Amino acid sequence: MTAVCAVSGALLVLVVLVEAFESLVLPRRVTRPYRLVRQYYRATWWAWGALTDLFPLARHKESILSVFGPLSLLALFALWAAGLIVGFGLLHQATAPEDARLLTSLYFSGATFTTLGYGDVTPAGDAGRLLAVLEAATGFGFFAVVIGYMPVLYQAFSRRETLISLLDARAGSPPAAGRLLLRLAPGGDGAALGRFLEEAERWAAEVLESHLSFPVLIYYRSQHDNQSWLAALVCTLDTSALLLTVVDGVDRQQARLTFAMARHALVDLALVLRRPPQAPEAGRLPEARLRELCEALRAAGAPVRDDRAALSGLAELRGLYEPFATALAGHFRLVLPGTWPEEERPDNWQTSAWMRRAGPLTALGANPQDDHFD
Predict the structure, then answer these.
(1) What's the angle, vertex CA 141, arms to CA 139 and CA 147, rounded to 5?
(2) Strand ranges (E), 264-330
(3) Which pTM was predicted?
(4) Which tens digit of pLDDT belongs to each residue from 313-346?
């Protein structure tokens, strides 16, 4: 019995420490997914999704899904701590006298791990004392790592949400590449569009780095239901693909760099999560809607190519990322935005609970006598 407790306790402590080290300390590798943590998130996300299906209203579902990320992280920390306490408790039982109770060893392990030190139970022998010191040091280090992990995680979340919020006025909510091209005037000098592409390239690189290092961030949803990190990434790819094929007369070098970085982030995240590509939705950019977008861009002063070669190139580029985006959207229960949706909704910045809706960006600074607000 003593040998069984010792071996079982040592294995449990080792497994938990390895999982916690790989999850919190070791930089994540694309080709090395966490073992137990990955299974934990797969099972809990499936169960949480089944729970949300019990609610008929979409807003209730989105609210419940938004709780999963933070709650699953706290539950994971608690699970790790419980595993360490049980593991050390079994080791204490192996070093305790033969008449010692297992519950007493578990209680002593919990008091030692949390550094409470009541003193009502003391270790027996040199091995027990050494084990108690080791457990107390492990508990202290575990809580220190957890406390240091949380600010870094939320800083990464805040940086991710910055560009998502900026897209509201530039591309609407949910963001659409067609709106972004029309609002940033590709027919002008292209400076605003170029700055956006540079910023989007850096943002995509940060998303890749932060979501590989902190995979739980993938489950953190944006503040508004019509925004998400995946929608922003797809909007960036749509914009770059249009600039590389349909929209002519622009510097395509930055569009190539942005497309490459955004696709890199999308594909690597799908690889880590083992989400194979799926057939994309046919309604994201129907042919008729694409023709209308080309006409709208021409009217805005942008040189447009809508010949067969340009349209074929656009379809080829979309085939490089849309299957991966579709797979991730289905897994995370996110909605992919259309490239230029027919339904126009007000941007998030225009709406307020205390006053009437603000007009579009074109109305800002206009003559107050003009009726631009409704």
Answers:
(1) 105
(2) none
(3) 0.87
(4) 999 999 999 999 999 999 999 989 889 888 888 8
